[in-house]
Write a structure and sequence with these properties.
By secondary structure, this protein is an alpha+beta fold. The chain has one helix at 52-63, and strands at 12-13, 24-28, 34-38, 47-50. Strand 2 and strand 3 (34-38) form a beta hairpin. The N and C termini lie far apart (30 Å). It holds the Pfam family DUF397.
C-alpha cells in the first residue's frame, strides 16, 4: 500500500454536494495523481489515490452510467 502526503493538497467539493455538505472532495496532485475523500470526515478520514488512467476510467464509468442501480 502506498502512502501519499496530502497535507498540501487543494481539495474541491463536488458541485453536486447536498445542503449538508455530505459529498466527495477531489484533489489533483503532482505526477498526475488524483485523490478522493468523503467530505463529511472534514479532512480526517482516509483518501483514495488514483493514477490519471484510473481516474479517467472512473469518470468514464460515471458518465456512462456504469455505477447506477
Amino acid at each position: 500500500m502506498n502512502s501519499h502526503d496530502l497535507s498540501g493538497a487543494v481539495w474541491r467539493k463536488s458541485s453536486y454536494s447536498n445542503a449538508k455538505g455530505e459529498c466527495v472532495e477531489v484533489a489533483f496532485l503532482d505526477g498526475g495523481l488524483v485523490a478522493l475523500r468523503d467530505s463529511k470526515d472534514h479532512g480526517t478520514g482516509p483518501a483514495l489515490v488514483f493514477t490519471s488512467a484510473e481516474w479517467s476510467a472512473f469518470v468514464r464509468g460515471v458518465t456512462d452510467g456504469e455505477f447506477t442501480a
